[in-house]
Amino acid sequence: MELTERKKKVLRSVVDLYIRTAEPVGSKAVAELPDMKYSSATIRNEMSDLTSMGYLEQPHTSAGRIPSTAGYRLYVDELMMDYRLSIDETKSISSAIEEKMQRVDKLVEKVAKLVSQATDLPAISAASRRSISCVKRFDLILAGQGSFILVLMLPGEQVVNKLIKLPLNVTETDLKLLSAVLNAAMTEIPLEEYTPELLDKVMRSAGSASSLVPVIVDFTQETLRNQGSTNMAVAGQARLLGLPEYRDVDKAQRVLASIDEDTLSNLPAVMQGSNGTKVIVGPENVADELKDTSVVMTKFDIGEGMQGMIGVVGPTRMDYAKVTARLSYFAESLSKMFAKPEQPQLPEGISEEPKEPNK
Amino acid sequence: MELTERKKKVLRSVVDLYIRTAEPVGSKAVAELPDMKYSSATIRNEMSDLTSMGYLEQPHTSAGRIPSTAGYRLYVDELMMDYRLSIDETKSISSAIEEKMQRVDKLVEKVAKLVSQATDLPAISAASRRSISCVKRFDLILAGQGSFILVLMLPGEQVVNKLIKLPLNVTETDLKLLSAVLNAAMTEIPLEEYTPELLDKVMRSAGSASSLVPVIVDFTQETLRNQGSTNMAVAGQARLLGLPEYRDVDKAQRVLASIDEDTLSNLPAVMQGSNGTKVIVGPENVADELKDTSVVMTKFDIGEGMQGMIGVVGPTRMDYAKVTARLSYFAESLSKMFAKPEQPQLPEGISEEPKEPNK
DNA sequence: TTTAGCACTCGCTTTCTTTGAGTGCTAAGC
DNA sequence: GCTTAGCACTCAAAGAAAGCGAGTGCTAAA
After folding, report:
1. pLDDT tens per residue, range B272-319
2. Order of all β-strands in the sheet with B276-280
3. A345 pLDDT exceeds 80?
4. B103 to chain A nearest CA, in Å?
5. Contact yes or no for A105 and B105 at CB 8 A
6. Which residue in A223, B127, B254, B326 has the most C-beta neighbors within 10 A?
7. Mind listing the pLDDT tens digit for each residue in B48-80?
8. How confident is the model over A4-15, as pLDDT tens digits?
9. Nearest chain B residue (CA) to A136
């Protein structure tokens, strides 16, 4: 059977109504829509066709129709009207983002909150660095009896430090020598090349400061490893409970549990290939708990070898148009913010990174 | 009427049973407890007395009894049996804490998760620094054309850094001079003494590097201000939904909303005075949404001018004994960890010490 | 091809009934 | 004088039955 224009129109109307009401949609309701020029009987026939074509479903014989997964898919891919963000919306999103945000992990948290607020759904936000990283420079600063500060400069304006304490005395000369050795031998090379042989070589060149080498290298390796890590935050889980489909507490709990930060750690992988906004409708989901829950995600580049992702989780009948619009706008604003880091809206640049000592 | 030993025993049994079952407790159930040597009729009389004394309540005439707020209070303050942590429990708590945790904010997050796991309830964790802080030392490291790294040493082994970029050239000599000036004039003094006059003086002494002073001082001030801030994390909200009293989604949502990180920002204030473990039973709560929700909190010192707090939120009938025991153990382990930061740490001495609650 | 009409279906809601845990009271027992 | 067995009474919760009404599919007429 062919999917005529009228059928598409009916399908769109059904999905739109269902998104709004969360109740099965009857032929009469569709017929009464302002720009629907046919009677309920006609609509009924069309809906019957759409059902046999697999785009709609009937919870039971005498109920209205609800969109099937295929129906949502078609809706998202073709039928969905562009949602125009109102000036107010763009304004509130931009101004929220523009507040200066200091560290990446705080930023991720903040963004998750904002996205959740903007969509009224639970939101996830993540930022991950690709781990192709190296040390650009080592600095050692004497900090007192047997303690010194190790400062690592990494690509992308990042600076990491650690206060190191040792049960032996350290002299300025030791540190000078050691930092020269480290800078000569261990900068600009990836983690993999930190071989035992290299360490050995460094140790030997370090002379009296050689006992400092292991602790320095340990920290460096750990730092480089963490560079490839992902910051992630979830916000607004409670919003899920406001939705009729999650009045069933068990269901809500299952979904909430599965969007816990721990559980989601593999999510970035999902986003790997695609760029832009991606909609995963209900059963297309990998996780079993999310079978009747949809996920909308947007990936974006934030420069400096970092990637950002924001997404929301909601019922299959969520307002895809609105959600994707807001998400995209968010992503865009964030990209912009990162693209020109020295611009006025971000007075300090985003390169600082206050660190605590204590591994 | 006098509160006899037997009445206390009955009350304790009622609370214990209610904590376990979440159902009104009948006289028969109490009478059938192993060490209850009276018949249900006798218990019935005692329960009737306890009801008129205000320690128990009846949801309706022909139902069992549930503890009133006064009943819980008495239970928590006097009746509650010490809960002995099993070796397994202490082990799992200690080993969880022992994992190296890097920064305070990450630690707070991690602890919230652990506490939530250990109690199976939503948990809050916070760490706050008293803001009496100063810079112990400034270091400036040249990092390239017109950019350098500012390193601040703060009390308590903290080191903070920031990469600063400027549209002008900076020389090693400039930085040497400047750091000498800064260390002479601006260390060991509190934020308040960063007066315009002082800045002026520093600027003048800084010579050709004077243009760097404002940006350095800005960052320093901001850092010191942040020192007084509070890190806070909430974890395991979803666990609330597993409890029968929160099957009512609206209720659950209200509670969850009110333990959102934002809302709770005033919580540290509540903990101000008291030390040790504090139990807030239901209606004793300030927030209206938490009227039938209890909060158990423990405050502890983690040295270096920092204070920690962990707490859980749960139904009024939560297992206070178990929860306070675990919370205290957590607090203790954390304190220990901070007290001897370089120690390999714990398992010896399973000195749990389920705290006597303070009224 | 569209539409009005009509019989039919079936999940909700409401009302009524039943059930049983739990109570308070009384009178007998220790 | 305490304790306990016994019994009538209460009342929420669970189950069953009835009625409602939104929605359908089909048919026949426009």
Report:
1. 656 678 898 887 776 777 888 999 999 888 766 678 899 999 999 999
2. B230-235, B123-129, B306-315, B293-301, B276-280
3. no
4. 5
5. yes
6. B326
7. 999 999 999 999 998 999 999 999 999 999 999
8. 999 999 999 999
9. B143
